[in-house]
Specification:
With 498 residues, the protein is mainly beta. 5% of the residues lie in helices and 48% in strands. A hairpin with a 2-residue loop joins strand 17 and strand 18.
Length: 498
């Protein structure tokens, strides 16, 4: 029999209840009771875009079923009283797939949405939007876990980006807002206030190097006046020492208000040593390769040739007092005077050992202690035409000019020259030939510059402090021996830092 329910055609066999398919839109093929859809059946809507196949109860979709769309999408799951309600799986023609809870055809409750572009959301839904607690994967490695409102990150939550950056704190309208902690990919950390996605207000930034700023932020930046302003030497900008005598360097990091930045810890400062000119009439010959641009640096005192820094380390048998000469125990007080030899102990020289040229600041300070400038192999020192003797006391100054003929002191010194290996290494002639192995460990008398450079990497917000220059004058030793003049209290003449 063929009978109609409204505009819908139903074909059934009264005796068996089996159904034969009808080709007309709005037709139903399936089980009925008293000409009402009941049990399993398939219904094609007048809008042929939709077709339902599944369970029917009293003429409505109820129970398990599948609703297909002509574009290839479909829903498979629970129906209640004719509506998509309960748990199910929705596939879109775009490739998106949702598995979870539905209410009246809308995404409501807990569910997982897998997007065709690789994104994924696991969490609560309300009216087809993210609402409440959930986790959103970007598809590119970004992950957010926290609270959502109207499909946006809103409330407390943690975001981890693919590059390693992460944020844990408050969100408003999909952006960090309020108090939060942001860890950056390079290891730096900011903790403080955010305003619509930018750092604004009070906050503490700890750079990967350890440099810390605690203060006000404006438009995602530290105000210019809050940065470290410059480096200064603590105590002096000029130092005078005897050859081989150790000294110390201390540097402070200053705020724009002139105070030491106590929070500056971890800034990398490098000490580079350079030769300006030898003293006492010696001359320096430099080849083109030795004077390459990367081996020199400019200073306020002229161009300096790069050397290296070392520290004095006492070895067994060194540093023992073996002879003493006491004439005047008072060290010089005039800052312009050279240190003198009277009143100090003669001891063997400890050996210079390699030391780190880079130091990290601690509470706004950095220091290099017990350092010396070791002998520099790159220089060829030749005898001066002026005066080649080491004695600089008044008696020597008043003496008659020395002849350089046979039997003269200069000739005798040449006979007492160093070994061939040492001559080849140091290329020393004239007065320099008298220096023993101890003296060869250290830089010759002359004028040197130590350059302190901010080499922090990565730099603190792209800002590096200007370099400092310490002028070091090394004075010639008056007596050449394996016994060496070293002050109990280093006789350093220092010019106070401005």
């Amino acid at each position: 029999l063929l009978f109609w329910l409204g505009n819908e055609a139903v074909v059934s066999t009264q005796s068996t209840g089996k159904v034969e398919k009808s080709q007309k839109p709005g037709s139903y093929t399936g089980q009925t009771v008293n000409q009402v859809r009941q049990g399993e059946g398939r219904y094609t809507y007048h809008n042929t875009f939709f077709e339902y196949e599944g369970s029917w109860v009293e003429g409505v979709k109820h129970g398990k079923g599948t609703l297909r769309m002509r574009d290839g999408g479909f829903y498979k799951g629970d129906f209640y009283n004719g509506e998509i309600t309960g748990k199910g799986e929705r596939h879109w023609a775009s490739g998106n797939v949702y598995t979870g809870e539905f209410e009246n055809g809308e995404l409501n409750g807990f569910g997982q949405m897998k997007y065709a572009d690789g994104r994924r959301y696991d969490g609560n839904w309300l009216d087809n939007k993210y609402e409440g607690q959930g986790t959103l994967h970007s598809g590119e490695g970004d992950i957010f876990t926290g609270h959502f409102h109207l499909h946006r990150r809103h409330g407390d939550g943690e975001q981890v980006w693919a590059d390693g950056t992460q944020y844990d704190g408050g969100w408003v309208n999909d952006k960090p807002h309020g108090h939060g902690v942001m860890g950056f990919a390079d290891g730096s950390v900011y903790e403080g206030q955010f305003y619509h996605g930018i750092k604004q207000g009070q906050g503490t930034y700890t750079h990967v190097t350890g440099i810390t700023y605690n203060g006000l932020w404006v438009q995602d930046e530290i105000p210019p006046e809050e940065f470290a302003k410059n480096l200064v030497f603590v105590g002096a900008t000029e130092v005078e020492v005897y050859q081989g005598q150790s000294f110390s360097i201390e540097v402070a990091v200053l705020h724009s208000n002139g105070e030491v930045m106590e929070g500056d810890t971890g800034r990398a400062l490098e000490a580079t040593v350079g030769l300006l000119a030898p003293r006492d009439g010696t001359k320096v010959k430099e080849t083109a390769s030795e004077m390459a641009a990367d081996e020199t640096f400019d200073t306020p005192h002229g161009t300096a040739k790069c050397l290296r820094l070392a520290e004095v380390v006492k070895e067994e048998g060194e540093g023992d007092e073996v002879e003493q000469e006491v004439q005047d125990p008072t060290p010089p007080t005039n800052q312009k005077e050279r240190p003198i030899s009277r009143g100090y102990d003669y001891i063997r020289l400890p050996s210079p050992q390699p030391t780190s040229t880079t130091q990290a600041t601690q509470c706004g300070h950095a220091s290099w202690t017990n350092v010396v400038i070791p002998g520099h192999e790159m220089l060829e020192v030749v005898e001066s035409e002026e005066d080649d003797v080491e004695a600089v006391d008044e008696a020597a100054a008043k003496a008659k000019p020395k002849k350089k003929g046979k039997g003269s002191p200069a000739a005798a010194r040449k006979e007492r020259s160093t070994t061939p290996d040492e001559r080849d290494r140091w290329k020393i002639t004239g007065a320099r030939a008298e220096r023993d192995k101890d003296l060869l460990k250290f830089a010759a008398a002359g004028t040197y510059v130590i350059k302190i450079t901010d080499v922090t990497e990565p730099s603190f917000f792209g800002k590096l402090l200007d370099p400092l220059f310490l002028k070091v004058t090394i004075l010639r030793v008056k007596k050449s021996s394996t016994k060496y003049l070293v002050a109990k209290s280093p006789p350093m003449s220092r010019k106070a830092a401005g």
